[in-house]
Amino acid sequence: MLVKEELKKLGLHFIIVDLGVVEIMETITPEMREKIRTTLLRSGLELMEDKKAVLIENIKNTIIELIYYRDELPRINFSDYLNEKLGHDYSYLSNLFSEIQGTTIEKFIISHKIERVKELLIYKELSLTEIAFRLHYSSVAHLSNQFKKFTGLTPSHFKNLKYKGPIPIEGTGK
Predict the structure, then answer these.
(1) CA distance 71 to 143
(2) Which tens digits make up the pLDDT trace of 142-169?
(3) Which single residue of 33, 58, 91, 142 has CA 20 to 30 Å from 80?
(4) Domains of the chain
């Protein structure tokens, strides 16, 4: 919404405004590009022009959209989904992502799935079985092992922590 409003203020007409992508009807001059860049920066956004950086952001946004904004993940491998959605061979996407981000797509996916598990444990009152099914874990044991590896806690221990509230600092009496 913010990007749309800023483009309207600049008198620009857009065809598409989506996560990380804007298609504008007008031809953009270097001066107008600089105005757009400045306007977006004032709003805390960045104009990305490097095609590789844009592709990396599209990979991240696609993964985040799948994990956080769908009730259930599609029954397709992430690699196939990214390949299909972004129109690039997965090995190219994987190598580019690793080179630029310093981590693999797989680790990025796992870390976001674990964050989603945390949210679902705290806010949705779903069972671990329901969460494992929703996030396409092969089993509750697989989810639990991956959760413990990333957080150092079992899902049950993590869920129990939410009820404790803030931990008092020794000697403050609070």
Answers:
(1) 17
(2) 999 999 999 999 998 998 886 555 444 4
(3) 142
(4) 2-47 (no CATH), 52-161 (1.10.10.60)
